[in-house]
Amino acid sequence: MNHGNRVNHLGRTSSHRKAMLSNMAASLILHKRITTTVAKAKELRKFVEPLITKAKDNTTHSRRVVFSALKYKEPVKELFGEVAAKVGDRPGGYTRILRTGNRLGDNADMCIMELVDYNETYTTGKKAPVKTRRKRAAGKKGAEETAVAEDAPVKRKKVAKEDIAPADVVAAPAAAEEAAEEVHPVEAASTEATPEATAETESHEETTTTDEAAEETKDAE
Questions:
Q1: What three-state secondary structure class fits 33?
Q2: Quick check: helix, strand or coil at residue 72?
């Protein structure tokens, strides 16, 4: 029975399993990214992350402990040099598992395992802006600007009234009355009687009086 057994033996003997994890850890440190199955990646994470934490303390004892696990000088040198300086401020969680789907041959669950600090896509050093729907209340500066904008038309009107002199204000109604009393010259010429017109009217009146006298004589006869 396998009850309570939290270790995945990966179908291998103890010596084979240790050699495989050591080899995978060395490849991950040197190349910063490897492709493997999800089951192996989860076991490798338990194996390599304590070694990276041990590399932060660059002492002879730490180097001997790491060397006994990795078995090679090149990954140990890379781990205590570049990798330790890169992950020095990170308190754990040095690796990331990215699932890539199933393998065609045996349908195994595949993934990419990488060191977190070496992925430039995720570690750009810039935080995405947080979008909110809240509206910012108008501050003191905004209130002053609105007050100035509201007072501006009133000030312009006051200045325009002050520019007008009192004499001009009094003379304006008088000029309006004079303009109303003035008559158009054409209308004035039409109302005035010319000498010829008066002579015609007088001759017309005389003829009417003579005609009336002749009619009266005829009636008398």
A1: strand
A2: coil
